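Internal ticket #5521
Category: modeling
Description: The requester needs a full-assembly model to guide mutagenesis choices. All entity lines are attached below as received. Residue total reported by intake: 603.
Assigned to: D.W.
Attached entities:
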Amino acid sequence: MTASLLWKRIWRHKIFYLFMLPGVIWFFLFSYVPLYGIQVAFRDFRFTGGFTGSPWAGLKYFHQFFDYYQSKEIIRNTILISGMKLCIGFLTPIVLAILLNEVRNVAFKKTVQTLSYLPYFVSWVVVVTLMQRLLSQYGGPVNNFLESIGLVNEPIQFLNNTSWFYQMIIGSDIWKNIGWNSIIYIAAIAGIDQQQYEAAKIDGAGRFKQIWHITLPGIRNIAVILFILATGSLMSAGYEQLLLLNGPATASIGSVLDVHVINAGIGSGRLSYAAAVGLFQSVIALILILTVNRVARKVSDVSLF
Amino acid sequence: MKKRLISPFDVLNYIVLALLGFSMIYPFIYILVYSLNDGKDSMMGALYFFPRKFTFDNYAQVFDNPKIWAAYKITLMRTLLGTFLSVFLSTMMAYALSKKTLPGRTFFTFYIFLPTIFSAGFIPYFITLQKLHLINTFWVYVIPSLFSFMHIVIIRTFLQGIPEELEESARIDGYGDFQIFTRIILPLSGPVLATIGLFVGVAHWNDWFTGAYYVSNKDLIPVQTLLQQMLTEAEALSNAAQQASQNGGQTINVNMAGSTPESLRMALLVIAVFPILCVYPFLQRFFVKGTMIGSVKG
């Protein structure tokens, strides 16, 4: 194609470039300008100087983070919490989709499905407020119920308690997301050829064999893709939930990178330091996602890119 | 007719799923019951499915509070404006990207994809918002959430399913590109626009973070941030109420009726959740389909 031909084609599409213009500008301002601004992690950022006007500081702020007495704890907490979320939060929607698929009663299935999406549509503030009230030691229905059936003698302190913290984090995460995340698997299962099940039945395969040999392989590809996507967030444990659920009482096991960045950056105004921590987080996330993507491509021929 | 056997697996399965469904809805039922019960009475506990001392007092007091009305207005405005602009502009971009003949199509797709795998992080983003003078304005709610890679891909995939012939015949009828977009493409895209509209709308409605960290002007606080403030400062409401009553105040007066800070908080929570509960069952069939399109082929 000659240059003038290309130019002609571009000119013919001029209105479409106009359509893209707001988006192109937006992505430039809100994604690429901040990328350029990553350099504040290597500078002594002063607001008047802007991204490029402040003096270089080298790796000072990275050293500051790794010398910080709690940094190991924060990294460990982050990996622990998001690792648990990754495994449990990844498996439970698959289990739900399979269980729903085994239900023959359409009305029952529809009802459970509709109810299961509900928590996804409320904010973390609402979820944590619900938890505070339901799990309260003072007249909360959960403790009331446990006491009335004689399971506990005195109310359990579920929140702000290190021995229940992880259960609360993971439990509320599952509660909020299980239904929504199962949609995709339900769709994938619906796409499986029914003849396979018929054939398996004739061969004498029971319920579990059918699930193991037909349903699970049928959703394998989509599961791999979602797993790759999820690994990208291993260094981020979900800042909304943890900002709201973590308090002084649970700080030793509940402080995570995202919250540390927000508190140090906006709370204490240490912007360069917080940017350095955030950059560390982003780089690890990128390495993780690229690694898992490569491994997945080798092992199962499924990959994102 | 063959008798259908109900296996132990079925029984267990139905029980597990019924319990799951119950756990999804019960917290909301409980909060509704709590908010409709006399606040002081609720503190005694043993409240499960029905109000013991039924009252609308909690709601009356919440609705009497001008701060809450103002917050509701902010939430409503940002949700309507933000959703409309986001859906309209995203669809325009997705429509352009759905044109297979568009020179530079791959480049632009990559241009919007890259930030999803490597982001600058929170701080450079925050500084950018400051430099753009968005901090502490109403627009910080609307502009930074206009576009998302995922939404554009979902819409693009949908648009690619619209037959080219429709556009061809419109062109023969003398329609220009923009007219084709507004008169043919948009009307045909109802389901996907409803899906994305729901996603964006719910995100706007539920966002408390922007109000808490990017806005300090008290007049710009949305409902969810108000709820978060009550959550983090457990005593905030009662303090405010005491202060208000000391100043001959107009905010919430705890002493008058049987309401407690807790029962008022629950009433506000119901108000904050209610609109979503009303909308989402109707849009369900759209978003189930919409997410599938986007994620399977995306």
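Resolution: model delivered.
Comment from assignee: The mean pLDDT of chain B is 84.
Ticket closed.
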